[in-house]
Amino acid sequence: MGEGEEVRMDPERAFDTYVAARLAAWSRVAYLLTGDRHLAEDLVQVTFERVARHWERVSANGDPDPYVRKILHSQHVSLWRRRWRAVELRAEVPDGRPAPDHAAGSDRAVMVRDALRRLAPRQRAVLVLRYFEDLTEVAAADVLGCSVSTVKSQTRDALARLRVLAPELVDLVGAEVER
Amino acid sequence: MTARLREMMTEATDAAPAVSLAADTWRRGRRARHRARALGAAAALVVVVALTTALAAPVRTASTGPAEGGPAVPARLDLPWMWQATVQQDPPGPAAVLFGGDASYRLHGADLFDSEGKLAVVGRGGDYRMLLYAGVETITAGEDVQLSPDGTRVAHDFVVTPELPDSAGGLVITDLATGASTVFPNPAGGGACCTPVAWAPDGGSLLARQYTDGHGAARLVLVNLADGTSRPITGYGPTAPLRTASAGAFAPDGQRFVVAEGTKVRLADRANGTLWTADLGPRRYLAGVGAFTPDGALITTVTLDGCLDDCDEAALAARRWTFGYLDARTGADAAGPALPPVTGLAVRALGWSRGTELVALRYAPETGAHKPSTDPWWNDTGWEQTGHVMLLGLAPGGATRTLLDPPDGVLNMDIPRDLIEAGAFGGPSSSASIFPARPIIWVAVVPLGFLLVGAGLVGWLTFIVVRRRRRAPAR
Questions:
Q1: Do both A73 and A121 map to the same domain?
Q2: A27, B125, B277, B303: which is deepest, by most CB within 10 A?
Q3: What is the pTM of this model?
């Protein structure tokens, strides 16, 4: 999708176009952040509702991704804090639900997902931003609304914690985790 | 490590089940947007309405007395704001009350950026407006500055107003409906002129004290406001310190008037001059501008029972004032309504309500007040001597009722004659509204602005600190 086009489009059409193009990518990030298919669905749902609410501002500079990323991460922390109490996030169950989690992916993928799930949300977020989305420390700090030094320390702590909580990963990620 | 971690994450997400989005996501988001906007608009409306109501509109409260729909003296007074608009800025219309005092900033300012002397006019619609007297903190309502009998004008010997030069000497009449002032020049020429003594009942003329040499020597003049002419009152020559509460009074017919000269009082009429003179002695005084009874047959006096010389505050507060009468035809003592005595520093009669009840001000002494044996500047109703004032209704037979008890810091008052005679007391009360304001409101707003900005900064820093602590890494 041409980024400039969506600005000139009817807002709802531009939003639909964006969702069609980027939903899968954001779903993967949500899945890494939550470690659970249903939680990921809910996170994506609240994120895109928020994006629709502010679409004019989100799309104003032609690239909604930075804004969506910020919303996704802030909603992730927010939803985690609410601990999903009495929240009915979906109006209806989408058709064609995929198979349950336990059938998803290889053993190694399950191991990574479970290891990430054992981290604090903030630590999970910095690993996703830095190593999955490949953002710089400055960009990650911007998304999370914290300082670069906080991102550095969170990253260091997350990797150290991974080594303690999931020693089985050490073999996979190598000795660098220990740094 | 980073490449391998990324590789494993990608592998994990590749294996993840697909996530779908509700079909009505756009609609739900937009609905939330409209709801937020509606809530914001409603909140803004509530704030604007609340602020407008609280700040701009005078708050009227229910009548506590017998005012029957017409204009009335309010049941309660508020103190004006430091920056309260002047009569000249936004005329209040006919007054219900005029008052002054020593309440800091509100009734007593600093000439550097405000005005030392201030009097507040309460309009019959409830508006509070100010009259400014730079350099004269001791200005008193009802004596130095007097409301006309119908409350539409104010008489004073000067007032701070852009339309008059500082040197304007003469009797100044300010119209409360327009804010405009008219100067009646001093017939003696030069110097200050014409502190009002008493308005004629029809408001067409008034007695005034005219300074002839600028050093206190004075004579009384009768100023005709219709043509601006003034006529000296023959033979007037004060020989004792002036007691402003007892300076003079008009008879209800407007033709006769009584004036005090030391211990003596003298009745005169416009056509024939002096009719009689009576000596009241050292403890008896003319009761005030409301001394004549409604039928004009008697002149009310007050007699002091208590400390006259070398009095401390307690002795001054314990002074007892009893009422007596002079026959207006002869000046001889006469019998009249048996009014209850008043205890206090002083009492000053303003007029008669509904033909029977004497309306008077009771003055309480200032904290620490002391009256020496000889003090030519002592004045029983003076600004420096008074600590509080209260409006009373004194009924024949002994009943005393409080008609108006103003807030602390109010030391003097004047009430228009028409409201007194109509018995219009206990009317709706209003609060002084912040606006309209004089430009000196910035003197208060700027520090307040700094205070709010400071509080905002502290709040913001607190927010930042709390947020950082919450985001601190889990240990």
A1: no
A2: A27
A3: 0.64
